C-alpha cells in the first residue's frame, strides 16, 4: 500500500512552485555570486559603469501596489535608462510610471511579459540589458551580480534556481521541461536555469544574435543562445519562489511555458537530427564534459594581503581573484579563505581580522568543507601546505622568499630555477582580456606604475624621463616613505614633467595604461613575474624593461623591448620603434589570459589528485601485506610444527656429526705427528 501511495504522489501535477519536504524551514541556497553591496568598492565601480552601459527593462500589468518600489530598485542601479513596458493595465500603473524619469511603452492590449521583454530589448540602447518583472521588488545588491557577469564576458546571465529543487518531492512539468531542454543542449550544468525565470541579463549583442523576435519565446531564445555558442552562465541565486505571488491563472502560465519548451525542442530538432534521442545524447555528453572539482583556495590575511577583489594594489590578490573567477565559470566548486570584506563568485569563508599568518593553516583545517579534492595554498608562508593535511595540497609562490615546498607552483621559469631548485610546476600568471581597454592611439607620456620602492626602478624611470625630456606619470602606493620624501619629492617640485598620482585602480588605471606612449619597467631585483608588463601589453602599450627576473620570459616575443642598461632605454624611448598595439594585444591574450592560466592549474590539480591516489593505494597495500594471514586449521598447523621440529633436529644432528668427525680427524693427525716426532728423537739418541 505504501508503494502505491508514493507512485501516486510522484504523478501529481503541481503549479510552478515546488513542493518541499520541510516547507516551514527555508532552504539553504549556495550562491554562485554573492550579493554585491552598493556601497562596496565593486558596487561603486559597477554603478559608475552602469551610467553608460546598463538598460533596465521592466514588464508590468496591473502592478500599482509594487510599481513605486520596482522603479526605485531600478533607479538605485543608476542605469543609463529604465524602460517600462506596460501592457493592458486597468489600474493606476501607467500614471505611477509617468511620475518617474523612465521611458514608458504603453499598450492597450495585454501582450504578456515575454513579448514585453522583446519590445524593451528592441528599444534599449545600453550594452547590457537587465530584465525584471513588476510582480515584486528585488534587493538591488542581488541584481548587481547579473550585470557584473555580463561585464565579465558572459553573453547571458541566468538565475541559478537549482538549490530550490534539491529537496523537492514533486517537480512540475514546466520545470522538468527546462531541465530536459538543457540536457538536450548538452548543458546539464545549467539544470533548471532558463530565460523564463527572472531576473536575468544579457548583452545587446547577444539579444541581436538570438533575434529580438525570438525573445518573445524565452525557451527558444535560450536554445538559440546555447546552440550558437554564446556564453550562458548561471550567475546568481535569487529566491523568486517565495517572492512571487500566486495568481489565479498560474496553471495556465505553466501550460504556456511547457508549450514554449516544446517549440524550442522542435526548433532544435530541425537543426540537429530528425529525431531527438537521449541515448546518443548521453554518450556525446560523456565525451565532451567533465565533473567539476571541489577546490579550496587559501590566501594570506590582512595586513599582508588585501580583500578581494583588489582595487588599486595587490598583484598576488589579482591573480588569486582571476583564477578563482575562471574556475567557477568553468563549473568547479571553489571555496575561498580570504580577508574580511572579500567578495567573488566562489563561496567565501572570511578570516577573523586578528588572525596571524602562522595560524591560517589551523584555521583552514578547522573549517575545511567536506569532500574537498584539492587545496591551493596562496599564503606567503605556505602555512596550509606545511600542515600536511590528508587532502592533496599544492602551494603557489608569488614572492621569492628563498624557500619552497614540494608540489609548488611558480609564476616563471626563473623563480622555478632559483627558489624551486627546478622542482614543482611553472604557470604564468594571467588576466582577463575583457577587463582591459585597448586603444591604438597613444599620448606622449611615459608611465611608471608599481610600488614606490628602490628595487622597482622608480629613480631610473625619473632619470630616463628627465634625460629624454619626456613627461612621466608615476602611479603606485608609497612603501618606502624615506625614499619618496628625500629623493622623489624634490624632483616633483623642480620638474613640471614629473607627476605623481598615487595608487590607482579601476577606470583611472585603465586610462593611464591604454593612453601611455610606453611603460617603463627598470627593475633592479629578481622580479617573480611582473603583472604590470602583461597589463600594459593587454592595452596595446609597449614596455621597456631591464632583463631581471622573469622579464626575458614575459617579453620573449618582443626581445627588442628589453634594455640592458639605462642608456639603451633612453635610446629606445627616443626612437619609439615599438611593435603595433594590435601585435602586443594579441601576444598578451594568447599567452597570458586567465583562461590559459586556469587550464594549466586544473591540469596540475588533476595530476596531484592522481599521484595522491597512487600513493594511498601503495600504503594500503603495504598495510594489508603486514597484517597476519588468517588462522589455518589446528591439524595443519600441528603437522607443520612437527615438520619444522624434525627439520631443525636433523639439521642439528648432521651439524653435530660433522663437528665430531672433524675433531676426530684433527686428533688422529695430532697423535700421528707426536708418534713420528718421538721416534725421530729415539733414533738420534
TrEMBL record:
Region described as Disordered: spans on this chain: 1-31, 609-685
UniProt GO MF annotations: glycosyltransferase activity
InterPro entries in UniProt: Glyco_trans_1, Glyco_trans_2-like, Nucleotide-diphossugar_trans
Assigned keywords, A-Z: Transferase
Compositional bias of kind Basic residues: 1-24, 610-626, 634-662, 669-685
Residue stretches making up the Glycosyltransferase 2-like domain: 55-192
UniProt domain Glycosyl transferase family: residue ranges: 441-556
PANTHER family for this protein: BLL5217 PROTEIN, GLYCOSYLTRANSFERASE
Name of the featured protein: Glycosyltransferase
Organism: Cohnella pontilimi
Source species taxonomy: Bacteria, Bacillati, Bacillota, Bacilli, Bacillales
